[in-house]
Amino acid sequence: MDITPYFDPVDFNAIGFPKESYDASLLISNVCFFHPDGQLDMDGVEFVVIGVPESRNAFNNSSCSLAPDEIRSQFYRLYRWEKEVKIVDMGNLILGKTVEDTYQVLSDILAYLIENKIIPIVLGGSNDLAFANYRAYEKLEQVVNIVAVDSRFDLGSEEADIRSDRYLNRIILQQPNYLLNYSNIGYQTYMNSPESIELMNQLFFETYRVGTMRKDMEEIEPIVRNAEMMSIDISAVRRADAPGNPNASANGFYGEEICQVARFAGVSDKLSSFGIYEYDPTLDTSFQTAQLIGHILWYFVEGYIHRQGDTSFKDKNMYNRYSVTVSESVDELEFYCSKKTGRWWVIVPVINIKKDIEQKYFLPCSRKDYEIACKDKISERWWRAYHKMNR
Known about the structure:
By secondary structure, the chain is of the alpha/beta class.
């Protein structure tokens, strides 16, 4: 697939780099920028940056269409990593005549990149673009685990048209459906109706309040490790740290915490697409939010550099195995701990009643899940996954 006709190249004047005399250690000097007059070499490319200035379905945030170039302006002022990473910036997607046209083209491009083992970084634009990201996996007929960092669930009703604050139902109701699991990190209870919270529980989706996560940030790592796709709504960060969003709250993640989440995403061997949405430059103070998003992207790539490749389980000698007997309805739990990284997994049996076959699903977990099992209890993480996979 030739993706070049769908993009306007980066305008260096717009992002504040009108000259070509840059410090060789800055990212601006270490990123390949698409230009229609040049030849695009995708050989060995690890990341493709895509700006999507789409806000026609934004809720109370039409100026988020201005976000991509403002983010670039701050991101490319940062210094490169110690290890060389090949990044191509395609510029901004040429929007479709309708928003659905934009979804269609974006999902085709993302599917092409994911299939070719290139990680797309989507700079929104509004949060409904996560729906187009999901459809990329649908086109590949690949089941997907989604992690959304968001203060709201963005559910909406079945009848409502898609919008940035109500796109998740479109994903849930898609047929055929390739959504294996959805996890929300950082929701704020008072911003979500009791009915939507109950629905998430009924669907066995994973939802984690921001206060709970902030008490132990390491517990976010296994959630993210299980995902192929991550979307970040910048309103999940408290307004004091990220004022560039009209729907931001006084509460939320701190700036350094959201960077830690992004690094977890980068380290995850499974994660194959990443998007950040809902930034409004017109509300920003001294480029504070744009700088933070630049840091988020930097930490995401820095995490990728430190991937360890310990999620395949091809060589069982790479892991320590622990069997824990419990007195609940499961006889024992089987844990694996990587000798390389110290990361944990627990086996969830998936039972096919029709074929009388039991398969094993390696669910990322933490040492805390193992310690809970040693106390003759089963973690909520395990129970939720078990019920979801054996419905």
